[in-house]
Amino acid sequence: MDELVSLSNDTLEQVPNGVAVPSYDRSKLTPGIVHIGLGNFHRAHQAWYLHRLMEQGLAHDWAIIGAGVRPADAAQRERLLAQDCLTTLVELDPSGKSAEITGAMIDFIPVEPDNAALIARMAEPDIRIVSLTVTEGGYYFDPATGEFDCNHPDIVHDAENPATPKTAFGAIIAALKLRRASGAGPFTGQCCDNLQGNGAILRRTIVSLARMSDPDLAAWIDANCSFPNSMVDCIVPATGPKEMAMAQSFGIKDAAPVTHENFRQWVIEDDFCAGRPDYDKAGATFSNAVHDFEVMKLRILNGGHQMISMPGDLLSIITISGCMEHPSIHRFFKKAMQEEVLANVKPVPGMDPASYLDLIVTRFSNPEIVDTTKRVAFDGSSRQPGFIIPSIHSALQNGQPTDGLALMSALWLRYCLAKRDDGSIIEPNDPNWDALQAVAREAEKNPVLWIEQQQYYGDIAKNTPFKDSFVKWVSMLEDKGIKETLDAYGGGTA
After folding, report:
1. pTM value?
2. CA angle, residues 174, 179, 180, in degrees to nearest 5
3. What is the mean pLDDT of the chain?
4. Distance from C-alpha of 360 to C-alpha of 339, rounded to nearest angstrom
5. pLDDT, tens digit, for every residue of 135-145?
């Protein structure tokens, strides 16, 4: 291969033929968005939609400025600034890979402990949207009750030190205080994480935190800022050596390339207090029925990810597509979805739940997507309450079967015992790993203790049929192992 082209504005003309590069003049772009949490998903999803608009000659005053509040974000800042904030996206289509370079992001704010630079930049009037991808567990609320966690040490710090906050939410509040004083006015807070009612959750976190130190400011934010709900969807693996090599196979040296599947969806409430890009012209959907799209995606795709990743990792299967090739996992996933989940998912325009499940099976089975079971199984303490337990509640309320969902809960317990069927150890894979392991060990003797964790399950343990089914599966997993237990539920053929 010829020498690799190091990615930068100055080298775009040297990028090999076949790799699309920005057709717009990036030097003429001006900012309109600060995005906090510059991971792979944002760059493959929201930033891509904006890039597509810019390719049409639109939204050139909506360029993205990156930001972060964690020490690891500083390293990402260095990587991206060194290549002028350009990103190589590699699409993993089973029919063949392709690559493009996107340029909607133009700067990255310094990452500081007191977030001073972030606050100052968000306070400038040209910023009209502040968007976030900070993971499902990053919003300081109890997943079982939905209540704001006002006692978390980070929240206590920000309430006591509102001018020097630790969290993204504290920084947003500090910036909005400056904007109110200067007359710059409110901006839209846009959550892009996989949470049902994600805009409402972002509003609650920001307003609740602001109320702890400045009730008048909290009221102003609640009355003037907008927080649209949205549903986001694109499978985006973590970047490792394989992904770096993919970018290099196109002749590009990119320190932070992103791979993604050949599917995207973004459904957004049209509720923006300070204007917005015309995302619909790049394929996004503005809708007042975001909740229905959310339920379909969160319960089938995200819930399905949980159903296959935990037994997959327990069986030492590395990838999600590998899980779909495993007959026992595939049968479990399909049967639980068809018999216990789909009945409580509404159709949306152009898609019914059964057809959506077929689409998800195809997407999960894509062998080009090297998405690891370890990554997908991460943070069960946020993802089980977000993606699985709502299906349990719905089925129980409607008198429907929950045997497969009870098996999923037993698999989560087994996963948190951290030992695979082959005897190898599962490394810590949850922010609450130590606490989960402690309960899991106690639950080996008394399984009901697991579903009595009210912060995750609410009052589900009081339902005798679900409890009995759960205990049955815990016992079988211990006595028979993962595969035989899955087969006891799934039967038949995939």
Report:
1. 0.85
2. 100
3. 95
4. 16
5. 877 899 876 67
